[in-house]
């Protein structure tokens, strides 16, 4: 576990230095990104690592004509990567490079504190996705890019989401981005909506059964499989959900106080309506696990595209604080919480993450 904590401390120190300097530090950001690429790209451990090792020979020997009728239930673009990868080690490396660098570009361009965003990501979903569920890690990077590109070009944004879907079908949920309102509501309405979702959650099984037949066959088959395999399971982590609800509340009231999360970048302003949309998506990410409580795969993988938006929203709030000591205090609080969550995750999945092994050392 030591090496995970060392990486965490490296990014933490870098983010504090970035805050003290009061500007983005491109060189330091690149150093941290390169460290993560090597850390993830040459690993020999992680969730799903053994499964992907087993599946690689089968997918590698597949034909291009078989990508939509695969021998193993995998998405087309991921199968193509397997076909053209000379070895499994190369596959892991190239997936790591694509997913981490794409997300790094989005973080650096759209977060006022990209290194702190990187810290929030690493202590949050990074180990589960980029070091585990690598198909969704790739999809997540494309979805994050799509959200922000939509401000300039909706067509390109849709193309990014389509790429994400072809890496992981769960990215279908990202199309909600285009219909979620770009305005903020009263706090009472958010809490009332949350309570209604919790109360109506027992009906979600019936509602899903009515919808499933209208979905594309690949999505419907996946849902049927998850319903069968995960019968009797529960996706709700009450402490984590309450933590995210608290984060949402803090973000909400800071947003009202400042009237905007937007920040200056090269003389331009990112419109506050985009930040309202991100906040609403984050709220949806909190609610999904409760509504699909009986399907850990769906609720877990579905809410991830939205619940991870705190890596942008929290730095935006910190940026608008005028007193530097308050910024350091908030970063310290979230860093401690992040470290505790990361350690808990590693303890829960120690069999696949500990000890950390790497082909380079």
Topology:
Layout: H1 2-21, H2 26-41, H3 49-60, H4 76-84, H5 88-110, H6 114-129, H7 134-149, H8 154-167, H9 187-200, H10 204-211, H11 217-229, H12 238-258, E1 264-265, E2 268-269, H13 272-291, H14 296-307, H15 310-319, H16 324-348, H17 350-353
Antiparallel strand pairs: 1-2
Helix pairs in contact: 1-2, 1-6, 1-16, 2-5, 3-4, 5-6, 5-7, 6-15, 6-16, 7-8, 9-13, 12-13, 12-15, 13-14
Report the helical percentage: over 70%
Strand content: under 5%
Radius of gyration equals 20 Å
How far is the N terminus from the C terminus? 16 Å
The overall strand count is: 2
Secondary structural class: mainly alpha
- Low confidence ranges: 259-270
Helix count?
17
Main beta sheet strand tally, sense and closure: 2 strands, antiparallel
The secondary-structure element order is HHHHHHHHHHHHEEHHHHH
Whole-number average pLDDT?
84
What is the domain total for the residues? Answer: 2
Spatially, the strands of the biggest sheet line up as 1-2
Shape: globular
Note down, in words, how this protein is organized.
- Mean pLDDT is 84; it is low at 259-270.
- This protein has a two-stranded antiparallel sheet.
- The protein has helices spanning 2-21, 26-41, 49-60, 76-84, 88-110, 114-129, 134-149, 154-167, 187-200, 204-211, 217-229, 238-258, 272-291, 296-307, 310-319, 324-348, 350-353; strands at residues 264-265, 268-269.
- By secondary structure, the protein is mostly helical.
- It is built from 17 helices and two strands.
- It has two domains: 1-176 and 324-361, no CATH class; 180-320, no CATH class.
- Helix 12 (238-258) packs antiparallel against helix 13 and helix 13 runs antiparallel to helix 14 (296-307).
């Amino acid at each position: 576990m030591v090496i995970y904590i060392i990486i965490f401390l490296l990014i933490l120190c870098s983010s504090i230095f970035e805050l003290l300097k009061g500007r983005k530090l491109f060189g330091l950001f690149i150093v941290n990104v390169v460290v993560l690429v090597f850390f993830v790209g040459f690993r020999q451990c992680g969730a799903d690592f053994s499964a992907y090792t087993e599946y690689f020979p089968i997918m590698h020997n597949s034909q291009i004509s078989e990508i939509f009728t695969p021998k193993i239930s995998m998405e087309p673009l991921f199968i193509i990567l397997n076909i053209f990868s000379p070895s499994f080690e190369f596959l892991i490396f190239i997936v790591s490079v694509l997913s981490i660098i794409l997300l790094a570009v989005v973080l650096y361009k759209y977060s006022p504190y990209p290194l702190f965003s990187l810290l929030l990501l690493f202590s949050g979903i990074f180990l589960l996705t980029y070091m585990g569920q690598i198909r969704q890690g790739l999809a997540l990077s494309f979805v994050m890019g799509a959200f922000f590109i939509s401000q300039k070009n909706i067509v390109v944004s849709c193309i990014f989401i389509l790429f994400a879907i072809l890496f992981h079908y769960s990215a279908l949920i990202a199309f909600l981005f285009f219909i979620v309102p770009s305005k903020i509501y009263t706090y009472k309405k958010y809490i009332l909506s949350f309570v209604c979702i919790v109360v109506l959650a027992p009906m979600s099984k019936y509602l899903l059964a009515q919808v499933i037949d209208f979905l594309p066959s690949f999505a419907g088959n996946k849902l049927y499989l998850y319903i069968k395999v995960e019968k009797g399971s529960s996706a709700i982590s009450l402490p984590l959900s309450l933590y995210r609800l608290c984060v949402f509340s803090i973000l909400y009231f800071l947003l009202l106080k400042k009237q905007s999360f937007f920040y200056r970048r090269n003389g331009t302003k990112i419109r506050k309506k985009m930040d309202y949309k991100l906040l609403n998506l984050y709220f949806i990410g909190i609610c999904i696990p409760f509504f699909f409580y009986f399907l850990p795969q769906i609720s877990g993988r579905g809410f991830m595209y939205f619940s991870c938006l705190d890596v942008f929203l929290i730095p935006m709030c910190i940026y608008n604080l005028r007193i530097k000591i308050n910024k350091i205090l908030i970063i310290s609080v979230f860093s401690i919480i992040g470290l505790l969550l990361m350690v808990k995750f590693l303890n829960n999945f120690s069999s696949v993450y500990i000890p950390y092994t790497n082909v380079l050392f």
